[in-house]
Write a structure and sequence with these properties.
Order of helices and strands: HHHHHH
CATH class of one domain: Mainly Alpha
CATH topology of one domain: Helicase, Ruva Protein, domain 3
Oligomer: single chain
Structural class: mainly alpha
Distance between the termini: 49 Å
Radius of gyration: 17 Å
Number of helices: 6
Shape: elongated
Largest sheet: none
Length: 119
């Protein structure tokens, strides 16, 4: 790491798990706060490319899902794959299925409040 001359960008949501010796070699650190619902709504609005067929997506309901941007991207991508394999536009039902899978992967409990009225 000391010999590399280029720029490296590292991200983690587990900074406390970094080894102290490794952490000392990092020159600059930026802290990003967890996105509030309003920002999550905007992330959901932008996560799908314009040419992605979607139907009935409720970005305000999606914004209640208490996850960060990386998980939003993962859920959107997996939901799009589910929709494509069914020959359908991306709908809330696909995102619900993808959300449940993502929460299992993250070992996160999914609350009824977060997914109320999705389907």
């Amino acid at each position: 790491m000391e010999e590399y001359q280029g720029l490296v960008i590292l991200t983690t949501n587990m900074k406390n798990a970094l080894d102290g010796a490794f952490d000392r070699r990092i020159r600059f650190t930026l802290q990003f706060s967890f996105p509030e619902p309003k920002l999550r709504v905007e992330m959901w609005r932008r996560v799908f490319p314009p040419e992605t067929p979607t139907e009935g997506l409720d970005f305000y309901k999606l914004g209640k899902l208490n996850v960060a941007g990386g998980s939003i991207r993962n859920i959107a991508m997996n939901g799009a794959f589910l929709a494509a394999s069914a020959g359908e536009a991306v709908m809330m039902k696909h995102l619900l299925h993808a959300t449940k899978s993502e929460c299992v992967k993250m070992e996160k409990l999914l609350t009824d409040v977060e997914i109320k009225g999705w389907v």
